[in-house]
Amino acid sequence: MLDIMTGTSFEDRLPEPLPAGTRVAHKIGSWETTFSDAGIVLPEGADGADEGYYVVVFSEGVPEGVARETIRDVSLEAYRTLAPPDSR
Predict the structure, then answer these.
(1) Which residues sit opposite 40 in a β-bridge?
(2) Strands across the sheet containing 23-31
(3) Residues 64, 78: Cα–Cα separation, whole Å
(4) How does residue 69 score in pLDDT terms, banded at 50, 70 and 90?
(5) Which of 6, 28, 46, 73 is the residue whose CA sits 20 to 30 A from 63?
(6) Per-residue pLDDT tens for 5-59?
(7) What is the mean pLDDT of residues 57-79?
(8) 56 torsion bin: left (phi>0), alpha (psi -120 to 50), beta (else)
(9) Cβ(14)–Cβ(22) under 8 Å?
(10) Domains of the chain, earliest start first
(11) Model-level pTM?
């Protein structure tokens, strides 16, 4: 399942700002003015989900571009805080 969820067509939210080699198994959501992305972030060198971290970002009532930018910002800050120091 992780392989399927890392090969999605929508890589413009959680995965976009992260370093090359970082895998993100995720699922986006979009409906009217609600936009989200939820996933498991696997820093380079991680062998499985137990070596990554989970992140969910949900926004409502803003334009899609603003939501996408906010999701990216939260994703990058989570990575900077939660990824192992040697992968940052």
Answers:
(1) 25, 54
(2) 23-31, 34-42, 53-60
(3) 21
(4) very high
(5) 6
(6) 888 888 999 999 999 999 999 999 999 999 999 999 998 888 777 789 999 999 9
(7) 97
(8) beta
(9) no
(10) 2-87 (3.30.160)
(11) 0.89
Alpha-carbon span 10 to 47, nearest angstrom = 23
Q: Is the pLDDT of residue 87 over 80?
A: no
- Look up residue 15 and give its amino acid: P
62: its two tokens? 């803003």
C-alpha 55/C-alpha 21 separation (Å) is 18
Closest CA to 37 of 46, 28, 45: 28
Q: Reduced to 3 states, what is the DSSP secondary structure of residue 41?
A: strand
- Other CB atoms within a 10 A radius of the CB of residue 7 amount to 10
